[in-house]
Amino acid sequence: AQPPPLPRRLSLHDAACRVAQEIAENIQERNRYQRNGESSAKLNVIIRSSLQNLGEKIDQLKDLLLRAVSTHQITQLEGDRRQNLVDDLLTRQKQLQASYKNEGTEPDVIRSSLMTGGVKRGVTNPWLLEESEETRGLGFDDLRQQQRRIIEEQDAGLDALSSIISRQKQMGQEIGNELDEQN
């Protein structure tokens, strides 16, 4: 089966971003209702449904990206760029889920942003974010070991990138030499 064309993938990413934005707005509205003592049951249902929809869209994007990279329809660099976009969506989804479960989180983020020069779209105070599940419960030595492992993985990726660039440089020089000879 052929993967969907690029415009569909982009529109799927845009749709996921819109859903994430709508969820954030609904959570803010729900929190406002709760502060005023009004019922927010309807909004909770909408938010829960939207979070599920967002998860499905992210899963579709991951599948499309995996297919595009494995069939070499896009370069590794483009695949990495798109993976970063998907990772950003995953992070946003986790933040929204935490805000949905933790009813007081969103106002604190807004309040803290006042101290950093105003609300910036998509930027939150990193000190207010919950600790990730990967690092929760780890000691100092465990965190240091995990950090070293991540750095080693990044170094291996950089080594691979370096060898690719060296090979391309060599090919460019050979092409230049061939052109000189032909001229």
Shape: elongated
Task: State the helical fraction.
Answer: over 70%
- DSSP strand content: under 5%
Extended strand count = 0
Order of helices and strands: HHHHH
Beginning-to-end CA distance, first to last residue: 46 Å
Which whole number gives the mean pLDDT?
Answer: 79
What would you report as the Rg, rounded to the nearest angstrom? Answer: 22 Å
Question: What is the overall number of helices?
Answer: 5
Spans of at least 5 consecutive residues whose pLDDT stays below 50 are 104-110, 117-123
**Coarse structural class:** mainly alpha
Number of domains: 1
Main sheet properties:
none
Identify the quaternary structure here: single chain
Organism: Fregetta grallaria
Keywords: Coiled coil
Protein name: STX8 protein
Write the layout of secondary structure elements.
Blueprint: H1 6-35, H2 41-70, H3 76-101, H4 105-115, H5 140-182
Helix pairs in contact: 1-2, 1-3, 2-3
Report on this model:
With 183 residues, this protein is mostly helical. It has one domain. It contains five helices and no strands. The protein has helices at residues 6-35, 41-70, 76-101, 105-115, 140-182. The model is unreliable at 104-110 and 117-123 (pLDDT under 50).
How would you describe this structure in keywords?
mainly alpha; elongated; single chain; 77% helix
Q: Summarize this, please?
A:
By secondary structure, the protein is mostly helical.
